Amino acid sequence: MTPTGSAARAARVDEIPMNITLRRVAACAIAVVAWSGLALDVWVIVRHDGMSPTTAIWSELRYFTVITNLLAAAIFTSAALSERPLLARVSGSVAVPMLMVALIYWSVLYPQDPPPSEKTVVNLLLHLFTPTLVVAYHLLAHRLAPRDLFARGRTDFGELVHRYAIQQSSSALARPLSMASPASSMPSPIVAASFATTSAAAALSTTASR
Question: By C-alpha distance, which of 185, 182, 191, 136 is closest to 22?
Fold first, then answer.
């Protein structure tokens, strides 16, 4: 059966050639913006909270925004240094979560932000500039319509979950029973304690009846 509509476009996007120079320049610009936002975020925390850079980095890795921007920075840095085109499934895998970051921030978190400060520049970089550039790159580089962004993202995410489930099931079935840990054949402490308690009670009962 021949795919039609968005499925056909999604199947062809990885085959669309792209100008190497323009692609690398765009990827470099996105990487610079992403790394700048992350670096400025750490600098603001170190300056105002008195943390060390290492502690600040670890504390920021708790946030989905930072993880997503870090992923975008790494992917587009690699794309800027490589002569191979960035596949649509790769750019799409970061474009969808970046769009989520922007939508959630500007619709929910932005009204609660404090007055403008150094953190405002960080928020603009992490929640506006980088997401916009990543989504624009994904759509323009692979000639996708905005509706194809979500269709491709759902396809890639579903495929990832499916592969992970198959891998975990295969590993569990392939593991031989003989490789089970010796500790699994030992009685648990709860069972041993219960057996000891039962034996002691029986002994006391026998002693009392004499």
Answer: 136
Distance (Å, rounded) from C-alpha 145 to C-alpha 135? 11
Among 21, 14, 13, 29, smallest CA distance to 132 is for 29
Q: What's the pLDDT at 75?
A: 95
Q: How many CB atoms lie within 10 A of CB 91?
A: 27
Statement: residue 33 has pLDDT above 90: yes
**Listed residue (122, 121, 100) closest to 56, CA to CA:** 122
| 176/195 Cα distance (integer angstroms) | 31
Per-residue pLDDT reduced to its tens digit, 157-193: 445 444 545 555 555 555 544 444 444 444 444 444 4
CA-based R_g, the chain, Å: 27
Q: Which residues does 77 contact at the CB level (< 8 Å), separation at least 6?
A: 27, 31, 35
**Residues in contact with 188: Cβ distance below 8 Å, sequence separation at least 6, in sequence order:** none
CA-based nearest residue to 152, from 27, 8, 1: 8
Selection from 152, 146, 144, 138 nearest residue 26 by Cα: 138
Q: Find tokens 């925004």 and name the residue.
A: 65
Task: Tell me the domain boundaries of the chain.
Answer: 13-158
Query: What are φ and ψ of residue 34, in 5° steps?
Result: -65, -50
| Helices and strands counted in the chain (H then E) | 9, 0
Query: Tokens representing 142?
Result: 């692979």
Amino acid, single-letter form, for residue 23: R
Contacts of 192 (CB under 8 A, 6+ apart): none
